[in-house]
Design goal:
Helix content is 22%, strand content 18%. With 366 residues, the protein is α/β, with parallel strands linked by helices. It has a 10-stranded mixed sheet with strand order 1-9-10-8-7-6-4-5-3-2, sandwiched between helices.
């Protein structure tokens, strides 16, 4: 345990050495993001507005994963994301997609990928794929004693600025893997690396290409593909969620922003969504520009509207220990949640770290 703690702290100290460049300049549209972060302590503040807010007990002491670096915005290739297939029937593979509008009923039977029932050569290691005329690398983490006839959940996990897939792997895929294992579950985890410091337009095509390969080569449940990421990883997760609702069942953005990232033409189709924001986050803040609707607050409002939820006069937030607000009257298939806390730009808060606990709680309901 001491060795694990030392390794985790060493990782965070290394990450903190990056030069912090904010993804939230007051008027800048440059494609930059950075890191910072602080320990979250204190008690839950009162929350106003309608709806349901749940909160944690106060936990002191947190390790902060930070990021930084400079980059220029990439242009990438032109792509509009994949489209869903017809409503699946039977037990055979249906390929990518699922229900065309993403309205998959809760607790549905798994829909196997085309790779189910076939032996695979994939193991837990780095792979290379050609996408948009480039060779791109990504890591696949396969379940122990992989069963080619079992449609596993699949998590697509995107790293923060200036990092690589190795950093996500070293965090056990945002600490989700231990959460699943504690519940006796296993999943397939995919962690790509960006071309340069940030995610770009062409990374929509990368998602499509990786998922097309996975569909043919491993057995997963095409209706339980999940996406998550921290900071710029949360931003590409948000970007993908705006036009890949037929491929991604639910997504969790950890400290995301809705600007300084390439966004496609939004379809505004529903998708189950959750995100976390520290109310002291100066990198990807709750509100960066009210008039321009820039900030995490406006991601929550957009998803709530897309998912048919009732919009409260004010979203309850917490400047103390974390509190999660569940939007009310959403489409039954598309729960919408936002968790706020009195901390900074981080994916590690509290002891135990509540962010993967709440993320897994959100994902496993499907």
């Amino acid at each position: 345990m001491q060795d694990q703690t030392f390794s985790r702290l060493a990782l965070c100290v290394t990450l903190a050495s990056w030069v912090a460049i904010s993804c939230a300049p007051a008027e800048s549209d440059s494609n930059n993001e950075g890191g910072g972060g602080a320990t979250a302590t204190g008690s839950v503040s009162s929350a106003s507005g309608s709806g349901v807010a749940t909160s944690s007990s106060s936990a002191s002491g947190s390790t902060v994963a930070t990021s930084g670096g400079t980059t220029a915005a990439g242009t990438g290739g032109d792509n509009t994301g994949g489209s869903g297939g017809a409503e699946p029937t039977g037990s055979g593979g249906n390929g990518m997609g699922g229900w065309p509008e993403g309205a998959i009923p809760m607790g549905n039977a798994p829909v196997p990928s085309a790779g189910c029932g076939k032996a695979t050569t994939l193991t837990s290691k780095e792979y290379t794929i050609s996408s948009s005329g480039q060779n791109r690398v990504y890591y696949v983490d396969m379940p122990r004693n992989y069963d080619m006839n079992k449609p596993y959940r699949l998590f697509y996990t995107s790293h923060w600025i200036g990092s690589r897939y190795q950093d996500v792997k070293n965090q056990d895929f945002y600490f989700l893997k231990p959460q699943l294992e504690a519940d006796g579950e296993q999943a397939i985890f995919v962690a790509p690396s960006s071309d340069g410091a940030t995610w770009q337009q062409k990374d929509h095509a990368l998602f499509d290409d990786i998922m097309a390969f996975m569909n043919e080569n491993v057995c997963y449940d095409t209706t339980r593909v999940f996406a998550t990421g921290f900071s710029f990883g949360g931003m590409i997760t948000y970007s993908l969620s705006t036009n890949h609702q037929a491929e991604i069942r639910a997504a969790v953005g950890i400290a995301p922003a809705n600007y300084n990232i390439w966004l496609p033409e939004k379809t505004h189709k529903p998708i189950a969504w959750m995100h976390t924001t520290g109310m002291s986050d100066g990198t990807c803040p709750w509100v960066n520009n009210e008039g321009q609707k820039r900030g995490a607050k406006f991601i929550a409002l957009e998803k709530a509207e897309d998912n048919g939820c009732t919009i409260p006069d004010n979203i309850p937030t917490s400047n103390g220990a974390y509190s999660c607000y569940d939007f009310q009257d959403c489409d039954p298939e598309h729960p919408t949640r936002v968790c706020t806390f009195g901390g900074g730009h981080t994916n590690i808060d509290g002891n135990p770290n509540w962010i993967p606990i709440e993320s897994w709680k959100f994902f496993k309901q499907f």
